[in-house]
Amino acid sequence: MKLIVGLGNPGAEYVGTRHNFGFFMLDQLAAAHGAGFHLEKKFSGEVASYDYDGERVYLLKPTTFYNLVGEAAQKVMAYYHIDISGVLVIHDEMALPLGTVRTRLGGSDAGNNGIKNLINVIGPNFARVRIGSGQTATHDGDTQPDHDRCGYVLGKLNQHDGGILSAEVPTILEVIDDFVRGKFTVSTYRLN
Taking 60 as the threshold, does the pLDDT of residue 147 lie above it? Predict the structure, then answer.
């Protein structure tokens, strides 16, 4: 069994924001596999599931808000007896420019409060898909906004940036399918 956790905030006001890239990708994944989400209060989240190559896959969109997702993930892991090696987390990454997807296994939270909470609750050794939400890199390589970071990640994508995110979907779905099949690799993908 596998658990795919998307990071985001519940509520219509957060749809289309950078911080909801994880939720957006789980919606794409569910649609690709004909799965539908339903609220599961015992898991503190919306859950969907499907079978892929003989593997049962659970999708979780926590309703605990972005910075407190660990509790929801831990509840699903305990209920279905899913080891941390079967967990993949999808989240936005402000340090990466939009159009970049990076996979990782374990590591630090890199200043991401949702990842920090997950590490504190379930441990650090889960797989990750980091979707760049940062600005175009400057001459010194910095992609993070130099103004209100909270306002930036909670800001909605414009049409151009939304198109870039949508163009990443096939690559991310392929990475998720690889994870489910046990072929997860650490790599960086960039749109041309």
Answer: no
